[in-house]
Amino acid sequence: MATQADPHADAIEEIFTTVAALAPDIRDALPGRRVQNDETNPSGETQLAADIYADELFREHLGALDSVVEYASEERTKIVPTDGEEDTGLSVAIDPLDGSSNLKSNNTMGTIVAVYDAPLPAAGSDLVAAAYVLFGPITTMITADGDGVTEYLVDDGVREVITEDVQLPDDPSVYGFGGRVPDWPDDFTAYTEDIESDDSMKLRYGGAMIGDINQVLIYGGVFAYPALESAPNGKLRLQFEGNPIGFIIESAGGRSSDGTQSLLDVEPNDVHQRVPVYVGNDELIEQLEASLD
Ligand code: FDP
Fold first, then answer.
1. 58-100, pLDDT tens digit by residue?
2. How far apart are CA 181 and CA 203, in angstroms?
3. I want to staple 220 with a disulfide (CB 3.0 to 4.6 A). Which of 15, 27, 172, 215 is the partner?
C-alpha cells in the first residue's frame, strides 16, 4: 500500500478540508432533491438530482485546487482535466453520493473520495489518501492518509476529531452482503453459510455501501458486494469505491480482496470498471479467499 509522501501532506489536507466544508451544502440540498433526473450515469443507472448537484459542487471546488490536476466522478463519463500544477498535482476520483437510492427511503448515504498520485484510471497502490463522509443521524468523516485512519465529526463543515488511529476491532460481529441471493455463485453462498453458522455474527445490511462499510470499521466484520452469476465483476467501481474503501480498511488493520488479491493490486483498465468487493477483518477475508475458487 502507498504511504503518504511528505510532498503531498498539505494537498491531502486541503482536499479533506474542502470535502468536509461541502458536507453541509450537500446535506441541506437533499430534502429538495429526492426526485429522479431523466439522465443515466455512465454505469446505466438513473441519476437523482442530488447526485448531479453533489458532483457539480465537488468538481467546482476540488477542481479549483492547485493540488488537483484531474477530477473523475462516478456521475461523469469522462475525466475532467483541471487547472492544477501538472508536476505535483494529484488525481481525485469521487463518488458524490454513494447509496443515493437510499435518499427516497431516508436511509444512510455518503461521499467517497480517492486521491491518487497517478493519472486515472489508477491502481489502488497509487493512492496517497482516501476518505468518506457519512450522512447518518450525524455527519461523520473517515480519513486515511497513509499514516493512519481518523474518525471526525463534521460540524458546520469543520472536522473535529472523534477517534485517532481507528482500527477494526479484533472480535468481529457484523456482516452485510449485497446482490440478489439467487444470483450469488455457489462458492460465495457456501462462505455466507459459514459466516451465518458463527453465532457471534449478525446480519446488518443497509443498502448503501458506505454505511455498510462504516459498521464493519466500527464493530468489526465483513462486507461483500460479490461477483454475481449475472455480473462476474459485481456492481461496485474500482476507482470510486473498491480502491478507496480497500485503502481505508487496510489502513485500519483489516484486509480487502477482489476474491483472489488485495483490491489495491487490481489492474486498472477503465475509469468505470467494476470489481467484486470483499473487505473486513483479516481472518474473515482469508476465509473468503479460501472459499472462492
Ligand atoms: P446506489 O446504487 O444506491 O448508489 O454503488 C452504489 C450502491 O448504491 C452501493 O452504495 C450499494 O452497496 C449498492 O449500490 C446497492 O445496490 P443494489 O441495491 O442494486 O444491490
1. 999 999 999 999 999 999 999 999 987 777 789 999 999 999 9
2. 14
3. 172
Q: How many CA atoms lie within 13 A of 153 on its CB side?
A: 6
For residue 40, pLDDT over 80 is answered with: no
Q: How much is the pTM?
A: 0.95
Cα(8) to ligand 1 centroid in Å equals: 32
In the reported structure, the alpha carbon of residue 221 is separated from the centroid of ligand 1 by a whole-number distance in angstroms of 19
**Domain map of the chain by residue range?**
8-163, 174-292
Q: Please state whether the peptide bond connecting residue 121 to the residue before it is cis, i.e. omega within 30 degrees of 0.
A: yes
Which residue type sits at 174? Answer: V
Q: Which of 28-42, 56-70, 213-227 has the lowest mean pLDDT?
A: 28-42
Average pLDDT, the chain: 94
Residue 101 in contact with ligand 1 by CB distance below 6 A: yes
Q: CATH topology for 174-292?
A: D-Maltodextrin-Binding Protein; domain 2 (3.40.190)
Ligand 1 atom closest to Cα of residue 236: 5
Lookup result for grid cell 438530482: 49
Of 47, 101, 104, 213, best ligand 1 pocket probe by most atoms within 8 Å of the beta carbon:
101
Gap from CA of 236 to ligand 1 centroid (Å) = 8
Residue owning the nearest CA to atom 18 of ligand 1: 207
Q: What distance in angstroms lies between residue 210's CA and the mean position of ligand 1's atoms? A: 9
* CATH number of this structure's domain 8-163: 3.30.540.10
| CA gap 55, 96 in Å, rounded | 5
Statement: residue 280 has pLDDT above 50: yes
First vs last C-alpha separation in the chain:
25
